[in-house]
Amino acid sequence: MTMRLSGPGAGYGRLWVLICLTILAGADRAHAMGYIVTRIADNSEKFTTFVEPGGVAGVTINEAGTVAFYARVTGGAGIFSGSGGPTTTIAGTSGPYNRFTRDGFMIPLVDQTIPAINDAGRVTFFAQLDGGGTGIFSVLGGATATIAQSSGPFSSFSVNPSINGGGTVAFIGILDSSPQGVFTGSGGGTTTIADTSGSFQSFGANATIPAINDAGQTAFIATQDGGAGSGIFRSTGGLPTTIAHSTAQFQFFGSAPSINNSGVVAFSATLDNATIGIFTGSGGPTATYVDSTGGFQSFGSPAINDAGTVAFLGVLDGANGVGIFTGPNTILHKVIKTGDALDDSTVTGILSFLRIGINEHGQIAFAVVLMDGRQGIFRADPDFDNDDVADVIDNCPDMDNPGQEDADGDGIGDDCDACPNDPDNDADGDGVCGDVDNCPAVANANQADGDGDGLGDACDICNGNDATGDTDGDGVCDAVDECPGADDALDANGNGTPDCLEAPPAPQDNPGGCCAPGVFPMVGLIVPLLLTGWKLRYRSRHHRGRRINGDSD
Questions:
Q1: Most buried residue, 1, 221, 357, 476, by most Cβ within 10 Å?
Q2: Is the pTM of this model over 0.70?
Q3: What integer pLDDT is reported at residue 26 of this predicted model?
Q4: What span, in angstroms and rounded, lies between the C-alpha atoms of 171 and 177?
């Protein structure tokens, strides 16, 4: 195993941790997933600790790679989020909240909330209020929604809610009327998913965590009435689906199942034969993801994403430590483990890994203790090709290309782009890139070009006629065009002969002048009329004059 690490320097920096073990077996080559690790926060500056006595330093992650966590600061505590730069305060004890923990079974042990974050950045958590009482809350952009509060129909809550993409929160609560149950809400009332007024006796201890997916399906652990056993169930409020049950091969269940958007539930359990493992199921037969028969001794709670990848905390056999893994192979599937170099130190303990610890990009959030005394919260970004570029931003995630060159700007790196100079990436799907395809919009894998004009026969309207094509663009190839340079379809007089083949009209005298066609006929008509009118007026005046003269005689 080789590990390359360049320190982040001062400030928030990135940690580039590359776990790049390569195993060669004959002609086959397998390699461990590389991870680029980003420090989200540590307790060397702003934060003093991420875990309370008896608590769990739970961290959760959303699709953007933003991590939510609980931490103590000087003079108080709060809920925070971060993605590698400055952290954001979601809620703190300087506001309406008194604390984000509650007393455990023994003082000074406490149950601390594990905040959950959705893709929109909304964070949900448990808190005790300054004025008394407790509640489940969610915050987005500084605006708080009260999901449920002990001043209402509830008397108490478990400290670990979950949240889905739509902002619906799932939690375990106890009603004033005594029934305990699993409930959901988003700030406008709550919905009962399951409670002890039915066939269930209880829903686990204070740290039990339900899980909810975007469809509103909620997964939870419960004990049934009358000694009927316990199991993992999934429900939206109606008749629950049994995922796994203690009457069928399982003996005990972990406290925190995880569910993906396909309704597949991942959970930890102990089988009747004492084998411990991580299992998955959706209502039919369950599948073993990993168990204690191969390299592992025990497991923490798992997390599953929509791709079906399960990440989990595993305790290794013997004195081999504890770590976070994504599969049964303790070498190939390792994310981080005790003894690994990290952040200019060495991992000495894993503080936690929980049910919302992996996102759809395979990014994993976790908390560790380092040899130099620090606690830290980190995010591991998969780097399958080990090129120091995380898969989530790598334009060739399966091929080593640290330069990320992309000549055609299509988001696919040149090293893995079948058409590095064609942004449309062979739009016609004929296996010939558009930048060299003689028919880029028409499939023609053989690229036949009978007349050698550079246009493939499949899209050449003048195929085989000539190499010049249709220069006047009238749809008639030059070789048979009656009117090369003009449109053969124009026929103004409708006689069936294209205008370009018609003889031009005979020229006229003085075209456009006074004697243009149509002018002489008008002149011949108007002039005689004008002369006739003048003669009539003259004769009338002449006769009137003679009569006047006659009267004077």
A1: 357
A2: yes
A3: 32
A4: 17
